[in-house]
Write a structure and sequence with these properties.
The protein has 812 residues and is an alpha+beta fold. 37% of the residues lie in helices and 16% in strands.
C-alpha cells in the first residue's frame, strides 16, 4: 500500500512539471532521451579512453627491466685482497633468489604481501585488509597500512615518482600487472629485495645485513630477518639508529604477522621478542684509514672511467697498498706531529660550547666530533672531550656517556702546572686515554693538543714501483690536500744524493777531498754572488766526499755542483724522475727548488734497485662487476745509473745512518741494512728524511701549509727522521715476530753488491790508503782503477783540522 502511494506521488510531480507517463511512451520523447544517454555514454567512453591513453603514453616500459642493472658498489682492495674502500651512490650488493634465506622471505611476505603467491599483481583482499587495519589504528597514525602488493611496490620503486596521486596509482596498478605477466614470483621477489633503500646508504637486504649485523643475508637469524623486513615500510622512521624502541616494536609486529600467517608458533615468537636488537654501531672502523690513498684511487677512476662507472658499475679495483705498512705510517706521522706541536707550547685557540650558546653541557651529543662516532675505545686513543669542571690541579671532562679525570701531571710542555690557566668550562680539548673503566664509564686521561703542523709519508717498493703506504696529512677530515702527491716543497739537502751521483759519474770518488771553507761563488746562470753557509755555521777544512755527504756539508756540495756545472745537476734531477721545474742555479746544491714527496722517494728507489727506477703506481688491475679485466698495470722502468754507481751511493748513504746526520736511526742497523738522507730548508720551514732498506724506500716531509718555521732547530733529523724510525721499527718487529712464529731466525736483507767493485781500507779523514797509525779507517768502495794512489802519512793527519780531536773508540 505504501509503495502504491509513493508511485502516485511521483506521477503527480511529473504532471506538475509538465510530464506524464503517456509522454514517455511517445517515440519523439523516447528518442530524445535515448540520444541524451548515448551522448553521455560517448563522453564517458571518451574520457575513459583519454585517461587510459594519457596514462599509457607516459607509462614506462617494463622491458627496461631486461637490461636494468641497479647501481652497485665499487670496491677498493689492498694488496692482500682486503677491502679498504667503497664508492657508490647507492651501496648495494646484488644477490640471487637462492641466497635469500627462507626466514626473510616469510617475514617479507607476512608483513608486506601475504597473498603474494596467489594474486596476479593486485590484491583486492589486501586492500580491504589494509582499510580495516587503518580504521582500527585511526587516521591520526603516522604509519597507515597500505594495500600495495610487492609487485606494486616494486613498480613504484623502479619507475614512478614517490608523490601519491590517482594517476600514479593507476600507473602502479598497470605496471604491476605487466610485471606479474612477464616475470616469475621468484624473479619479482629477488628484484624487490635487491632494490629497496633500507636506510643509511644501504640498498638491498644484503647491504642492510652487512650494515646492521656484519654478516651475509643468508646467515640471518629470524629476529634479524624480522628487523630488516620491518624496515621496508619506512627505513628511516624505523631505523634502529634513530629510534631503537620503535624499531623493536616494528620487529615484534613482524613476528606477530609471522604467527598470524602460520609461519611461526606464538610461543616461539614470544621467546624471540625477548631478544635485543643486537645491531652493530653505525660508525665503526677508522674513517681516516687509508683516506688519502683511497682518494688518489677515486680521482684516477673518475678521470679515466667517469663518475657513472665509479659510483654505479661496481668496479673491483686492486691496489698496491699494504694494510700493515699503511697503519704504521699513519700512526707514526700523527704521533710525531703531536710531539712536534707540543714543543711550541699550548695554544689558547680551543672551541667553547658555552660561548656558542649551548646551555647544558651534559646533553651535548658530539655528533660533529669524529672521535665520538667511533664504536669502541682503546687506551692511548686521542679523543675530543668537553670540559665540565676545572680546578688548579684537576678537571672533569665528558666524552659520550663517559666522564673522565684530567690532572696536571705531565703538562710541563704547556709551560704551566695550573689547569685554570689553560682550559675553562665548555672548552673542547684533545685528551689521550690512559685507562678505561668500562663498568663505571670512567676515563683516566692526559692533556693533548691537535697539531697545526702537517706532514706527508710515502713508501714505495723499489723493485716494482708499487706504493705500499701513503699519508697525505695529519687528517683527511681536516684537509684533503695530499702532501705526498700534490704539495711542492723546497727539497733542502735531501736532493744532495742526486748531485753526488753526478759527481761520482764525473770523476769524483768517495775518497775525493774538497775544502770545506767559507766560499763565495759567482752563479754563472744568474750572474750574482752566492755564499752559502753550512747548517752548523762551522767549517772543517779538507774533507772527503763521504764526509761531505754524511755530515751534509753545504760548501762541499756547492763546490761539487760548480765543478760538474748546475746544468748537469738539472739533467740528473730529470733522469731521476723529478718532474717539477728545476733551474741551473748554484742554489740547487742546497735544494732551493720545490719538488713533490712522491718524486723524491721515487728518485731514491733507484739506489737499492741497481740503478733502475720503476715509475710509481698504486693500481695493479681493474675489473668490471663480472670479473672482466678493464686495465692492468704496466711496469715502466728506466735505467738511470749503472749498478756500480747505484751501490756506491747506497754505501755512502749507509754512512749517513751509521754516523752521519741520521745516526739516531743507527740502532736499527743490527736488524736491517738501512740508508738515507736528511733534509732541512731555511728557517726550518721544511724537514725531510728519505731512506731505504733493500726492499722498501720511504720518505717523510714535515712542515706547514705555508712557508713558516716548524720551530727553532727542527731539522730533518729532529722533525722528520723520528717518523721514519718508528715506521721501520714496526716493520722490523713484525718480521721478527713472523720468524719467531715459524721457529726461524729473521732473514737479514743485504744490499746486492755488483761484482766489479773494489773495497779498499782507507783513512776516512784523509781519503788515502790506511796504515796501522790511522785512527779513522773504513772499508771504502771504488770503481776499479780509481782507488787512492798512496798511503796515509803523519803529515796528512796533521793537515786535517780535527784529526786528533776524538779518540778512535769514540767513533766506533
Amino acid at each position: 500500500m505504501t509503495e502504491k502511494k509513493t508511485l502516485i506521488l511521483k506521477i503527480k510531480k511529473l504532471k506538475v512539471k509538465g510530464f506524464s507517463l503517456k509522454k514517455l511512451r511517445e517515440p519523439k520523447v523516447r528518442n530524445r532521451i535515448l540520444f541524451a544517454l548515448l551522448i553521455l555514454f560517448i563522453c564517458f567512453l571518451g574520457i575513459t579512453v583519454g585517461v587510459y591513453k594519457a596514462i599509457m603514453q607516459n607509462l614506462p616500459s617494463i622491458t627496461m627491466l631486461e637490461t636494468y642493472e641497479p647501481p652497485i658498489i665499487t670496491y677498493i682492495f689492498a694488496d692482500n685482497g682486503e677491502v679498504i674502500g667503497q664508492y657508490a651512490r647507492q651501496k648495494r650488493i646484488v644477490i640471487t633468489y637462492e641466497e635469500i634465506p627462507e626466514v626473510l622471505k616469510k617475514a617479507i611476505i607476512s608483513t608486506e604481501d601475504p597473498r603474494f603467491y596467489r594474486h596476479h599483481g593486485i590484491d583486492f583482499y589486501g586492500i580491504l585488509r589494509a582499510v580495516k587495519e587503518n580504521i582500527k589504528i585511526g587516521r591520526k597514525s603516522r604509519r597507515l597500512h597500505g594495500g600495495s602488493t610487492i609487485s606494486q611496490q616494486l613498480s613504484r620503486e623502479l619507475f614512478l615518482h614517490p608523490k601519491q596521486t590517482l594517476r600514479r596509482k593507476l600507473k602502479e596498478v598497470i605496471l604491476a600487472l605487466q610485471i606479474e605477466r612477464k616475470y616469475t614470483k621468484q624473479q619479482i621477489m629477488t628484484m624487490y629485495l635487491n632494490q629497496y633503500d633500507l636506510g643509511h646508504g644501504a640498498f638491498g637486504v644484503e647491504t642492510a645485513s652487512q650494515l646492521f649485523f656484519e654478516k651475509n643475508v643468508s646467515e640471518l637469524t629470524l629476529a634479524e630477518a624480522a628487523m630488516i623486513a620491518g624496515l621496508f615500510r619506512g627505513p628511516y622512521y624505523y631505523s634502529p639508529y634513530n629510534n631503537p624502541e620503535r624499531t623493536l616494536r616494528r620487529r615484534n609486529h613482524v613476528l606477530n604477522r609471522l604467527v598470524e600467517e602460520g609461519f611461526l608458533r606464538k610461543d616461539e615468537a614470544e621467546k624471540i621478542k625477548q631478544e635485543p636488537l643486537n645491531v652493530l654501531p653505525l660508525h665503526r672502523g677508522d674513517s681516516e684509514f687509508s683516506a688519502y690513498f683511497n682518494e688518489e684511487v677515486r680521482k684516477y677512476l673518475e678521470k679515466n672511467y667517469g663518475a657513472e662507472a665509479l659510483y654505479r658499475d661496481g668496479l673491483k679495483v686492486y691496489t698496491t697498498v699494504n694494510i700493515e705498512y699503511q697503519k704504521y705510517a699513519e700512526e707514526a706521522l700523527r704521533n710525531h706531529l703531536r710531539v712536534l706541536d707540543k714543543r711550541q707550547g699550548w695554544r689558547k685557540d680551543k672551541k667553547n660550547l658555552l660561548d656558542e650558546g649551548l646551555q647544558n653541557l651534559e646533553e651535548f651529543d658530539g655528533k660533529t666530533f669524529s672521535s665520538w662516532l667511533k664504536s669502541s675505545l682503546e687506551e692511548q686513543d686521542i679523543i675530543e672531550a668537553v670540559v665540565l669542571y676545572v680546578e688548579r690541579n684537576k678537571a672533569t671532562i665528558k666524552f659520550k656517556d663517559y666522564t673522565g679525570e684530567l690532572t696536571n701531571k705531565g703538562i710541563g710542555w704547556t709551560k704551566t702546572n695550573n689547569l685554570k690557566n689553560l682550559i675553562k668550562k665548555g672548552d673542547v680539548i684533545h685528551v689521550k686515554i690512559r685507562k678505561i673503566d668500562e663498568e663505571n664509564k670512567k676515563l683516566d686521561v692526559s692533556l693533548d693538543q691537535e697539531p697545526l703542523l702537517e706532514g706527508g709519508f710515502l713508501a714505495i717498493e723499489p723493485q716494482t714501483g708499487q706504493i705500499k703506504a701513503m699519508v697525505g696529512g695529519y687528517s683527511f677530515e681536516r684537509s684533503k690536500w695530499n702532501n705526498a702527491t700534490q704539495a711542492t716543497r723546497q727539497s733542502g739537502s735531501v736532493i744532495k744524493p742526486i748531485l753526488y751521483t753526478a759527481a761520482l759519474e764525473n770523476g769524483f770518488t768517495p775518497a775525493s777531498r774538497i775544502v770545506d771553507e767559507p766560499t763565495e761563488f759567482k752563479d754563472q746562470w744568474s750572474g750574482e754572488l752566492y755564499a752559502p753557509n753550512n747548517y752548523d755555521r762551522k767549517y772543517k777544512g779538507a774533507v772527503t766526499l763521504r764526509t761531505g755527504l754524511e755530515e751534509s756539508r753545504n760548501i762541499v756540495t756547492a763546490k761539487l755542483l760548480e765543478y760538474i756545472s748546475p746544468q748537469i745537476g738539472v739533467e740528473y734531477c730529470k733522469r731521476f724522475g723529478v718532474k717539477s721545474p728545476v733551474y741551473p742555479y748554484l742554489s740547487l746544491a742546497l735544494g732551493a727548488f720545490e719538488a713533490r714527496l712522491i718524486e723524491l722517494v721515487s728518485a731514491f728507489t733507484t739506489f737499492p734497485n741497481r740503478g733502475i727506477r720503476v715509475e710509481p703506481y698504486f693500481i695493479t688491475r681493474i675489473e668490471d662487476k663480472d670479473g672482466n679485466i678493464l686495465e692492468e698495470s704496466k711496469i715502466e722502468t728506466e735505467e738511470v745509473i749503472s749498478p756500480e754507481i747505484a751501490y756506491m751511493m747506497t754505501y755512502l748513504l749507509q754512512g749517513v745512518v751509521q754516523g752521519g746526520t741520521a745516526a739516531a736511526a743507527s740502532f736499527l742497523l743490527k736488524d736491517k741494512p738501512l740508508a738515507g738522507k736528511t733534509g732541512t730548508t731555511d728557517e726550518y720551514s721544511d724537514a725531510w728524511f728519505i731512506g731505504f732498506s733493500p726492499s722498501l724506500c720511504a720518505g717523510v716531509w714535515v712542515g706547514h701549509n705555508t712557508k713558516i718555521s716548524i720551530g727553532e732547530h727542527q731539522s730533518g733529523a729532529v722533525a722528520a727522521l723520528p717518523v721514519w724510525i718508528e715506521f721501520f721499527s714496526h716493520i722490523i718487529e713484525k718480521e721478527k715476530k713472523a720468524a719467531e712464529e715459524m721457529g726461524e731466525d729473521p732473514l737479514m736483507e743485504e744490499f746486492e753488491v755488483p761484482p766489479n767493485l773494489n773495497f779498499v781500507e782507507i783513512d776516512r779523514k784523509t781519503g788515502l790508503l790506511a796504515t796501522p797509525f790511522c785512527l779513522w779507517t773504513i772499508k771504502e768502495v771504488f770503481l776499479p782503477g780509481t782507488e787512492p794512489g798512496r798511503f796515509c802519512t803523519y803529515e796528512d793527519h796533521l793537515l786535517v783540522l780535527d784529526y786528533y780531536s776524538k779518540k778512535k773508540e769514540e767513533i766506533h
